[in-house]
Amino acid sequence: MKHKVTLKPVGSELIAEHGAALKDLLFEHSVEFPCGGQGRCRGCRVRVVAGETTVNEAQLERLTQQELDEGWRLACQCSAESDLTLELRQWDSTILTNDTEFAFVPRKGLGVAIDVGTTTLVAQLLDLTTGAVIAVRTALNPQARYGADVMSRVQHAVSENGAEQLKEAILRHAGALLKQLAQAADVDFHEICRVVLVGNTVMHHLFCGIDLEPLSRYPFETENAGLVRICVADSGFDLPSDAEIWFLPCLGSFVGSDILAGILASGLHLRDKPSLLVDLGTNGEIVVGNKEKILVASTAAGPAFEGARISMGMRASSGAIWKVAVPEVGSDALRCDVLGSITPTGLCGSGLVDAVAVGLDMGVITPTGRIKGGGDMLLQEPVKLTQTDIRQLQLAKGAIAAGIQILLNAWGACSEDLEHIYLAGAFGNYIDRASARRIGLIEFAPDRVEPIGNSALLGAKIALFAQDEEHLKYARILGTTTHFGLTADPAFQDIYVECMGFPAPE
After folding, report:
1. Contact present, 200 and 222 (Cβ < 8 Å)
2. What is the pLDDT of residue 351?
3. C-alpha to C-alpha distance for 166 and 194, rounded to whole angstroms
4. Which of 235, 292, 401, 450 is deepest in the core (most CB within 10 A)?
């Protein structure tokens, strides 16, 4: 027996076998499964407008009675038991690319740069004779159905056949992106002569078939494999046999080639004075350095900045509140900007930071993070900020702020010594810098902070033009870079706890 599943507001219609898991049907339509479909979070909520699905114990535990009465369900716990009409909370994925110009030496052929993110993939096709981007494609990382953060992927990878399952999924998806790029640009697919990939250490190891077991346990260390050259035949990509596929090397256990690419893109490694690079995404990475010395570290910030583990959290897509400001004079209602200018359905990371900053300025939230009077903080119906949401933000921002402080101390620099302060990644690009400072995430004057977009993708494009591995300018970076384990610092716990609080009003 087959059932029709209609998705609103996108208007898509799917045909599903009776009993088919909604998790498998809805992932391709931007429904996220932050806990890997285990029923431990609320990130995959959908509303059943018509039809019936069974309510199990996980849903009774995670959803309120009002939500259940309104038809909300956890998609990961439901199956197609009848024809269904579902209202999705998340759609129209917005993924950051980077079109910054850079110096290069022209070469023949076409090249593809791919940023393999934990949540998303971004690929750009370049004409290597001109440096022009001739096609762009973005997609959700198919591995995201197994969990929103890197440790969820690691745990799945060390399970039976898990690593093979994750590798096959990302290779198949990357191959499909290559074909889509060629079709979009109306070029011969076989003119692609080089593909350069970057990603965090877990994405790197999964793609390259490197054992992740050492990263699943303390001390979370892994061998740096250097530049990985992937054979076309092993990749499954329909490319010429002599095409080059490079995955740039990682810098440390949880500091990947996306950060190496970010250093390349920022030019931090060429300067006399130290600079700071912070990549805010599913994981948080921090770099302090100059041409003489570079320190890198990662923080267990968790996925709160991308909306995961927030009660009404979502990515920066249609329906997300992405900006929050104090009420206008004579009004009690907060001013909320919603992506797509529609009724809000959730809150993304930049909106979360704004909301807490506004709450602090209005005295609704105390410096300890408590909502005065208890209850929730209404942003715009039906979106609310809960006490648990604020605690999740405090954990995330505390880890980043503590990491910056400890890495600066280890390098022997203070904030005044920094020539540049770069914010990378989609969240870093869209966050309001004044709000970030107000909550103590980035304690620098807003005019000193420079958003640089998807620096990982830009660094991958720079690598496309290297004549060969010897000319790829990462060797100097690797030679001057030290991975710093933040938790090894005896002061880490005290600094972390201190950074979890919010600054008092100035």
Report:
1. no
2. 94
3. 23
4. 401
Distance CA 149, CA 32 (A): 12
- Per-residue model confidence (pLDDT) at position 39: 80
Evaluate if pTM is beyond 0.90.
Answer: no
Let me know how long the chain is. Answer: 506
Amino acid at 41: C
Beta strands at 2-8 and 84-88: parallel, antiparallel or unpaired: parallel
Helix (H) or strand (E) holding 15: strand 12-17
Token digits for 275? 């600079």
| Strand-pair category, 275-280 with 228-229 | unpaired
Residue 288 pairs in a beta bridge with 276, 295
Per-residue model confidence as pLDDT tens digits over 213-229: 998 888 788 877 688 99
The amino acid sitting at 1 is M
Question: What angle in degrees, to the nearest 10, is found between the helix axes of 349-362 and 387-411?
Answer: 100
Residue 179's region, left for phi above 0, alpha for psi from -120 to 50, else beta, is alpha
Q: By the 8 A CB rule, do 91 and 144 touch?
A: no
**What confidence tens digit (pLDDT) does each residue in 188-215 have?**
888 999 999 999 999 999 999 999 999 8
Write the CATH number of the domain with boundaries 2-88.
3.10.20.30
CA–CA separation, 349 and 401 (whole Å): 16
> Which H or E run includes 167?
helix 162-185
Cα separation, 68 vs 138, whole angstroms: 34
pLDDT in tens, 131-160: 999 999 888 888 888 877 788 889 999 999
DSSP state of 328: P
CA distance 415 to 443: 9
Give the C-alpha separation, 386 to 131, whole Å: 47
- DSSP per-residue codes, 186-204: T--GGGEEEEEEEE-HHHH
The rounded distance, in Å, linking the Cα atoms of 10 and 402 is: 42
- 201 and 240 Cβ atoms separated by less than 8 Å: no
Q: Are 288 and 309 in contact (CB under 8 A)?
A: no
Asked if the model's pLDDT at residue 12 lies above 90, the reply is no
pLDDT in tens, 422-433: 999 877 778 899
Tokens of 417: 């010594």
**For the segment 412-424, what is each residue's pLDDT rounded down to a tens digit?**
999 999 999 999 9
Residue 489 per-residue DSSP state = S
